[in-house]
Write a structure and sequence with these properties.
191 residues, Rossmann fold, 6 helices, 6 strands, binds flavin mononucleotide
């Protein structure tokens, strides 16, 4: 069983990355394979609203000139999705939003390709707006017939400019461990 994480931060080793690694630690202890793909800072177009995916139904986005279809293949191959982002103006980063819009559409028009996968949202923030970003990710899972995993708090971690602060948020990091354990628990029950 495998969990794929997408990091919406352009900072490869920032706060969001550290939170993902904590969830991975718990997942790997439970024998779950993990993979991380950085989407932040990459060129990923938004949905062009061409609706060609509805005509073609070929499990692909018709905008094939960026890394989206490669990421989407990986999403299809995973049993669990961990979508993670820093908070940017009380929401997720534009790169992660572009993946969500296109993945949600292609999944749905091809017969709910994400059906019964497990999903969790992870968000880092400096001060405010994190729950709104967290909700943005969960909207994908809720419309794609997926099962959402929660934890002891909303899956948030507090960190600022250097990208090294989030380990100081003990409650946030403990929550990541609990989240990884719960994801593994649900995935094993579903298998
Ligand atoms: C463009 C931009 C917008 C941001 N907006 C918010 C915000 O609305 N609320 C907040 O708490 N932090 C905000 N932050 C801070 C980051 O969300 C926070 O430092 C986060 O932990 C960075 O994660 P990273 O190290 O993985 O990139 C913003 C940072 C940037 C660069």
């Amino acid at each position: 069983m495998k969990v794929l994480a997408l990091n919406g931060s352009p900072r490869k080793e920032g706060n969001t990355h550290k939170m993902i690694l904590k969830v991975f630690e718990a997942l790997e202890t439970e024998g779950i394979e993990t993979e991380l793909v950085h989407v932040g800072g990459k060129v990923i177009r938004g949905c062009l609203s061409c609706y060609k995916c509805i005509e073609r139904k070929d499990r692909k986005c018709a905008t094939g000139n960026d890394m989206f279809n490669e990421i989407f293949e990986k999403m299809l191959g995973a049993d669990g999705l961990l979508l993670a982002s820093p908070t940017y103006f009380a929401d997720i980063t534009p790169e992660l939003k572009a993946v969500i819009d296109r993945a949600g559409f292609v999944s749905r028009v091809n017969g709910q390709l994400f059906r019964h996968k497990v999903g969790a949202a992870v968000v880092s923030l400096r001060r405010g707006g994190g729950v709104h970003a967290y909700d943005s990710i969960n909207h994908l899972y809720q419309i794609c017939s997926m099962f959402i995993v929660g934890s002891t708090y909303w899956n948030l971690g507090f960190g600022g400019r250097t990208g090294d602060e989030v380990p100081n948020d003990k409650e946030g990091m403990d929550n990541m461990i609990d989240l990884g354990r719960s994801m593994a628990y649900l995935m094993k029950k579903l298998r």
